[in-house]
């Protein structure tokens, strides 16, 4: 789902709750260009954990 920065300015941060219940992520569009992504904190933690696991596996591969 893509929303504009102006919508956020008008409606406030609570605007995110409405859409994050329906969508996994929100893309914020600034002046016609996608600029930011908003994720639910639990989804962010999953992404971070996967990123760290991948870095660990790469490190172990490099050591071998």
Characteristic terms for this protein:
64 residues; alpha+beta; YefM-like fold; three-stranded mixed sheet; 58% helix
CATH architecture verdict? 3-Layer(aba) Sandwich
Largest sheet: 3 strands, mixed
Q: Look at the structure and give the CATH class.
A: Alpha Beta
* CATH fold field value: YefM-like fold
Uncertain spans, ≥5 residues at pLDDT below 50?
none
List the helices and strands and how they pair.
Blueprint: E1 2-4, H1 5-11, H2 14-20, E2 25-30, E3 33-39, H3 41-63
Describe the structure.
The protein is of the alpha+beta class and 64 residues long. It has a single domain (2-63), classed as YefM-like fold. The protein has helices at 5-11, 14-20, 41-63; strands spanning 2-4, 25-30, 33-39. It has a three-stranded mixed sheet. The protein is elongated, with a radius of gyration of 16 Å.
Short précis:
This protein is of the alpha+beta class and 64 residues long. It has helices at residues 5-11, 14-20, 41-63, and strands at residues 2-4, 25-30, 33-39. The chain has one domain (2-63): 3-Layer(aba) Sandwich (YefM-like fold).
């Amino acid at each position: 789902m893509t929303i504009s920065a102006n919508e956020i300015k008008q409606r406030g941060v609570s605007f995110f709750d409405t859409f994050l219940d329906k969508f996994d992520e929100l893309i914020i569009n600034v002046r016609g260009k996608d600029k930011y992504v908003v994720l639910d904190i639990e989804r962010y933690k999953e992404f971070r954990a996967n990123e760290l696991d991948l870095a660990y596996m790469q490190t172990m591969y490099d050591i071998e």
